[in-house]
Design goal:
It contains 1 helix and 5 strands. It is about 15% helix and about 35% strand.
């Protein structure tokens, strides 16, 4: 019997050493292990850490005090898919005064 060398299973994979997008000040991010989205307030001079604060995407405003010195390798750029965008737009139009 000849092996096809296929891995059986499912899940998200990442190539070792795959570069993450460069996180910048003002960018919306999702920190690993935390719930919600955050905005980068400041990036350290060495680029290893960032200060982030909870961010309300629909209101486009910051919520609360910043979290200091979060490791950059724990931050992923926030990407809103089409269904999330549609839901946010509906929510914004129905809650306007």
């Amino acid at each position: 019997m000849k092996s096809t060398r296929l891995a059986i299973g499912s899940g998200l994979w990442e190539t070792v050493g795959m570069a993450r997008a460069q996180i910048k000040e003002g960018q919306i991010v999702v920190p690993d292990g935390m719930v919600g989205v955050y905005r980068v307030v400041r990036v350290s001079t060495d680029g290893q850490t960032a200060d982030i604060e909870k961010f309300d995407v629909s209101e486009q405003k910051s919520l609360g005090d910043p979290l200091r010195s979060v490791a950059m390798n724990k931050l992923t750029a926030y990407k809103e898919d089409a269904s999330q965008t549609a839901a946010r737009i509906v929510r914004e139009t129905t809650t306007e005064d």
